[in-house]
Design goal:
Oligomer: single chain
Order of helices and strands: HHEEHH
CATH architecture of the largest domain: 3-Layer(aba) Sandwich
Radius of gyration: 17 Å
Number of domains: 2
Distance between the termini: 31 Å
CATH class of the largest domain: Alpha Beta
Number of helices: 4
CATH topology of the largest domain: Glutaredoxin
CATH superfamily of the largest domain: Glutaredoxin
Helix content: 40-55%
Shape: flat
Number of strands: 2
Length: 112
């Protein structure tokens, strides 16, 4: 689940910032929000910057516990949610990267 889709569920508001831009990479719009260019990035009202999907979705869920978007903190169920979020962030992303690299190698006439 993307963070942008999760925000309305929580009753919160979010403003999106384009990741792509024209011209040099140093002028990408996301760099004004996050100098490292990480997405997703969530800037809180007090200016605090949060990054990484697992952290952001749990933060949003904790802000509206009555909506039961995530199990309560400190429970086994929450720990299982954190395990799944970390799995998707690391293992699935790594698999997607491998697939992309193999496709590029195939298109360039190399296999392996």
């Amino acid at each position: 689940m993307t963070v942008c889709r999760y925000m309305p569920t929580s009753g919160g508001r979010a403003e999106t910032v384009p990741v792509r831009g024209s011209g040099p990479l140093t002028r990408l719009p996301i760099l004004a929000v996050n100098p490292l260019g990480y997405v997703p990035s969530l800037v809180l009202d007090d200016g605090t910057l949060l990054t990484e999907r697992p952290a952001i979705v749990q933060y949003i869920a904790d802000k509206v516990p009555a909506k039961r978007l995530a199990p309560p903190n400190g429970t086994v169920e929450r720990t299982k949610l954190q395990a799944w979020l970390n799995f998707f962030s690391s293992e699935i992303s790594r698999l997607a990267l491998r697939i992309c690299i193999s496709q590029v190698q195939f298109l360039n006439g190399r296999q392996g």
